[in-house]
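retry 2 of 3: previous attempt timed out while embedding flavin-adenine dinucleotide. Reduced batch size to 1 and resubmitted. Inputs unchanged:
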Amino acid sequence: MGNTQPKRILILGGGFAGLSAAMELEKSLATDPGIEVTMANRENFFLFTPMLHEVAASDLDLTTIVNPARKMLRRVNFFAGEVKSIDLSSKKAVVAHGFDHHIHTLEYDYLVLGLGSTTNFYGLPGLQERSLTMKSLSDAMRLRNHLIAHLEEAASECCLVKNPLLTFVVAGGGFAGVETIAGINDFVRGALKTYPNLREEMLRVVLVHPGAVILPELGEKLGAYAQRKLSRVLPTEAWSSATAR
Ligand SMILES: Cc1cc2nc3c(=O)[nH]c(=O)nc-3n(C[C@H](O)[C@H](O)[C@H](O)COP(=O)(O)OP(=O)(O)OC[C@H]3O[C@@H](n4cnc5c(N)ncnc54)[C@H](O)[C@@H]3O)c2cc1C
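retry 2 succeeded.
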């Protein structure tokens, strides 16, 4: 008797990398009954991160930057869960899901890794505890709520020292940092109209970047161009060749 077990392709992560792989396989190998493709991701949606700052800045409704994975994948199986471990030698991934975080073991013949990255705090003491990250939808919502809470607190009559509450620092001048600082800047300046006792001079919006030119992803020429443009709309002490401390 022949071996009828389908070949299993497991994609871990449903961001740009994982979802692109899944969509490609959806059109090709997943049509083959001898091949089974599964994508596992923490959330059951794809998040369009380049517009995340617009959710944080209340420019966009959050539903405009998410797309349900199950809607996009017809042939590729979808598994919503948290990847806990991968055993490359036995070709197994352990994934937790459900209200009780119970464990499933997903076996594979071929593995596609698309789990993205985590924020690097460079081991700086206290940074992780005292900062907000900007990677997920919940990060964007948290940042938005935080900005509003700071404006409300600074505007209250009992707040004697307003400036620290109105100082916003973003560490890192890559895509995420630059888009986030611009979003924060637009949001807080726009909101000032509704806070008669807060003035523009009280705001301090700072981008801290360790290089001379922001957006290293774009190369020096484009980065310098973006830096010039941004400094026009971000009238702040924006550029510092420093490392966050
Ligand atoms: C605010 C912001 C703005 C950006 N703007 C731009 C831009 O304008 N242009 C540009 O080119 N790039 C931009 N980027 C960078 C871009 O988002 C990343 O380069 C891209 O998302 C990387 O794709 P990825 O698939 O490797 O990772 P991700 O998109 O991060 O996807 C990883 C996926 O894996 C999932 N995952 C991670 N760990 C686990 C786990 N243990 N279990 C289950 N699932 C897990 C995550 O939930 C996520 O869905 C921006 C990033 C941010 C945060």
